[in-house]
Structure of PLP-dependent aminotransferase family protein:
Amino acid sequence: MDSSLPLVLDRTGSGPLHLQLAEQFRAAIRDGRLQAGHRLPSTRDLAKELVVSRSVAQAAYDQLHAEGWIAGRTGSGTYVADVVPLQPVLRSPARAPEPAGKQLLTLRPGIPYVSTTVDAGWRRAWREVSIQPPARGYDHPAGLPALRAAVAEHVGRVRGIACGPENVLITDGTSHGLRLLLSVTRQAGDRIAMEDPGFVTAVTAARQHGLQVVDIPVDEDGLLVSELGPDLSAVYVTPSHQYPLGGRLPVARRNELIRWARRTGATLIEDDYDSEFRYDVAPLPALAQLDLDRVVHLGTLSKVLSPALRLGWLVASPEVVNRLAAYREEVGDWPGWPMQAAFLAMLRDGYLDQVIRRSRHLYAERRNHTCAVLAPYGQIVGQDAGLHITLLLPNTDDGAVAARARAAGVAVAPLSEYRRSTPGPPGLVIGYATPTDEDLLKALDVLVEVLRP
Ligand SMILES: Cc1ncc(COP(=O)(O)O)c(C=O)c1O
């Protein structure tokens, strides 16, 4: 019996013959040329007719059988099945990414310098992880116990926070810790005070949780504590380096803030994102050091190693930590074991301290250079710490300046991006950490051209 179909096989390399054959049968069944019950040739006859090996015909039939297009048993022939299978929905392929245009040099703030090579400390930590099996079940939702203890020791030593493992919860970074805290401890409609200008991601998180964001002005020292009004359930604050203006909250204001929180019962959320880096100024301990019953402290690896690691920590009272851990257990959302285990090795071996020391030297030089180059064009603020400075440019359209810089090949953030309702001078927020030394020099040259009157 012949197949009564014009079957054509392309032997010049357009895919395996059995798949070509199967697709031609499928097409014929789909468009009705082969009807349910139609008897198909045996594999032997089909192979002969097409001059292919029998295994090709057999493989095509096996495939059609498995997909439900044909039926039949050995000996009694093969028929077109009377139940035509559902067609899978064909999705158009995802759009190819835009072709990369001219690469922008970036002076946007927030990302540390990450070398293209790895060093011995990094390799040691990951080697250690690679030779251990994972836990047999779920790890503790607050984080690996040994890592919680190591982080407690770390924040005690470098941030002056006297605490133990029961105060520590390992997070996927600041943003994750903040969202977790808001979802468990705040109610929609609660009022949260946030610095203005401030960290846009944190404001977005608060709004998405249904909180009412109350804008609080900042000055060159940071949050204006005297502006905190009544009925606030929480305050989000960056005391070690106000983001983005760079103020370092003085001791008197910290004490005033803690006294205010004790009086009102509000929670202070301390975002300690880049406190590892300060230059020629005395260290200020974390706000959390003053009162762990009132302050929830958020730390991150994003500025020290890389934001791609998605790892951070939250330090709070054991009650808050336990509530957050219980919630995480319900939703099954906490950082994976390999990253936690590697971070533990990095802390224990002193690798983190080593990277911080090394980066501090690098960033100090870059900060000096950046300030020296840009000083003639505006007022520099926030240069004592962190990975960025802010260049105030009164009476300028900072969005237009950033657009001109972009057109000239440099990405930089206009200060107006961070402002909400509190008026203040325009400017540029300039991160000096991300590029290579060479690219930083080039990018600053471009920026000077853009800023030149
Ligand atoms: C003010 C501030 N906090 C925290 C972070 C880090 O967030 P995460 O730890 O989620 O990467 C950043 C990063 O840009 C930041 O600017």
Summary: Residues 1-93 form a domain with the Arc Repressor Mutant, subunit A fold (CATH 1.10.10.10).
